[in-house]
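Researcher: Here's my situation. A collaborator sent me these components and asked whether they could plausibly form a single complex. I don't have experimental data yet, so a predicted model of the whole assembly would be a useful starting point for our discussion.
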Amino acid sequence: MNFSSKLLEDAVHEFSKLPGVGQKTALRLVLHLLNKEQEEVMHFSNTLIKLKQQIKHCTVCNNISDHTICSICAAPKRDKELICVVEDTRDVMAIENTNQFFGVYHVLGGLISPMDGIGPSDLFIDGLVERAAKGSVKEIILALSATMEGDTTLFYLHKRLKDFQIPISTIARGIAFGGELEYADEVTLGRSIITRVPYENSILK
Amino acid sequence: MNFSSKLLEDAVHEFSKLPGVGQKTALRLVLHLLNKEQEEVMHFSNTLIKLKQQIKHCTVCNNISDHTICSICAAPKRDKELICVVEDTRDVMAIENTNQFFGVYHVLGGLISPMDGIGPSDLFIDGLVERAAKGSVKEIILALSATMEGDTTLFYLHKRLKDFQIPISTIARGIAFGGELEYADEVTLGRSIITRVPYENSILK
């Protein structure tokens, strides 16, 4: 690109580092901001700086939080004995949106991925083991992505947690609700036949 | 979305104001930045603030510039008597990328659009008339989008400029190079038959 301005080029360069943002999109975003009032651009930038400087991780569950204990861990209504283990904040938000879970979370901060050089020590796993060791946990739900990394992490967590005699469960995998059989991928379809549930135990009962 | 953090929510809100960025994309971008070092986030924000505070508009052509005269208007090699009128900086960059134009530009800062409440007085048209009035311009090329707004602006500019006895041209419209006839839209195809050029004048000669 032929930039007539170094200032513009620098800003476009910064935006194009964001995931999924190419040079053309970056230029469009920067020119959009440039058309805004100075006040608005300052507010945009300062919100980001404030986020980075003031954000904390909950000391209990490692979720992103404004305080040292996050709003979920601090809520008296939530069941502290039921822990749902997830990869990151986005998963917490996704599960919260379902309104089906009333326990607390444990945010690993990633998944084990030897390909990307992420090992167990890079994740907040010791914190989970500590919580399990305290003895007041009645179930740990492992809600991880159904990917190679998710399965590796699942396997590792099970190994670390199995001696505490706490029931460990994983979220159900199978054909998505509303999904048509003919469009399901072979692995999912094959596994949902192998892991079939008695009709009395199914959600349809 | 259920945000566990007000700081996070504020930042996502700011990003989702950008064109083409929804809440999910905004969250992804903000979490990406949150994973970066504080230094990098500061640099990102400060680049934007610096751009907004220091950017200028060239006093000759109105293009975005780091100085009061932009690098194109200041270049001794560029033909100052040939002016190409465009909507915005992106069009300047697109034309510069072709390496086919060696004159200077005039950036209107938009197109006349009564639907959006943009009239001629909102654009840098008086500046163009002043340049034309100086008498040293040998041709004005109107390189505007082939849209309703572009055509309206074209018509208005022609009315304002026609008394100066300067040749006014518009960029050629027709079937795009590499375009197959059967996929061309009807209007373009119809007009390119009406505005057909003698073989001797065509680029194929």
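Model: Some features of this prediction you could bring to your collaborator: The beta strands of chain A are 56-57, 64-65, 79-86, 103-107, 139-142, 168-170. The longest helix of chain A spans residues 38-54.
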